[in-house]
Amino acid sequence: MELKKSDFYFDLPPELIAQDPLEDRSSSRLLHLDKETGEFSHHIFKDVPGFLKPGDCLVLNNTKVIPARLFGTKEETGAVVEFLLLKRLEGDVWETLVKPGKKAREGMRFTFGDGALKAEIVGIAEEGKRLVHFEYEGIWEEILDRLGEMPLPPYITHKLQDKNRYQTVYARYEGSAAAPTAGLHFTNELLDEIREMGVDVVFVTLHVGLGTFRPVKEENVLNHHMHSEYYEVSKEAADAINACKERGGRVICVGTTSCRTLESASDENGYMSAKCGNTEIFIYPGYRFKVLDGLITNFHLPESTLIMLVSALAGREHVLAAYEEAIKEKYRFFSFGDAMIIL
């Protein structure tokens, strides 16, 4: 079977790309898509509890975005160089993207901010990534919080006024280079309301990598190599999801990252157990979901792996028709945009 990248193209007017988060997280719009019939209806995100039933299980990704973008100056010349932290390897060595790369050869040294942080390029990895050793006194997280910026996606050109707005209210474990954006719509009050209905609210962790923004270059989708991301499912989360299935409840994931975590951590029959590791799972039409029954997600880029995942759940024709409706109704797209609930 050949699946073409161009099958997932749609024309998006640039003015519909949300540049700033809304004042009130839960006031974004919500498009409900019936995954069986393809029918859709328009709502506000605060209406989410109306789509849930007692006994359901809502699964959220509690990863925390680190302010991974740093601007340093080259000690020899004072040239400004941008560092994007991708993954901590050991101690204070990080795998990073450095721009411009030609100004970051092995042995070169850099200073950040007021000199509280210094760095040396200690190696070059695949795809031109740099291995960087950081030197500092004090607590790494505090220095990074002070000197780093949130690594916003390339399609957001406005400066973020409040770092916390690119963070879910339940973010807990640091490690992401991008936010699990479907969760940005939830407030603590909305989650409390959902719990009070008798819905289980369960947390898993998947550290989102920048690969999430990497375009699919192959026209035959099946030739695309998926990026790897680290995930963890606790025994408590696995038990809650299994119990939900046993009582006939629905498992509804918030975001494609939660979905990919569950589908990676379950066995062939959809049974969950405590698990951690790296996943490269690529979900596209034809995939049979083992755990997931429904999904809350934002509106994704044309031809992206994310719109392919959504199409696997609700059918490509249904999804593209819903996107066409969202464009007609001027929904806001991508990370700071509006949401869909697919049930």
Walk me through the structure.
The chain is α/β, with parallel strands linked by helices and 343 residues long. The chain has 2 domains: 5-65 and 163-342, 3-Layer(aba) Sandwich (QueA-like); 69-147, Thrombin, subunit H, CATH 2.40.10.240. The chain has 6 helices and 17 strands. The protein has helices at 140-147, 188-196, 235-246, 256-265, 305-314, 316-328; strands at 29-33, 40-44, 57-61, 63-65, 69-74, 80-90, 93-99, 109-112, 117-124, 130-136, 173-176, 200-206, 229-233, 251-254, 275-279, 294-298, 339-342. The strands form 3 sheets. The protein has a 9-stranded mixed β-sheet. Strand 9 (117-124) and strand 10 form a beta hairpin. The radius of gyration is 21 Å and the shape is globular.
Looking at CATH, the homologous superfamily of the largest domain is: QueA-like
Structural class: alpha/beta
Strand content: 25-35%
Secondary-structure element order, N to C: EEEEEEEEEEHEHEEHEHEEHHE
Give the overall average pLDDT.
95
How many domains is the backbone divided into?
Answer: 2
What is the level 1 CATH name of the largest domain?
Alpha Beta
Q: Roughly how much helix do the residues carry, as a percent range?
A: 10-25%
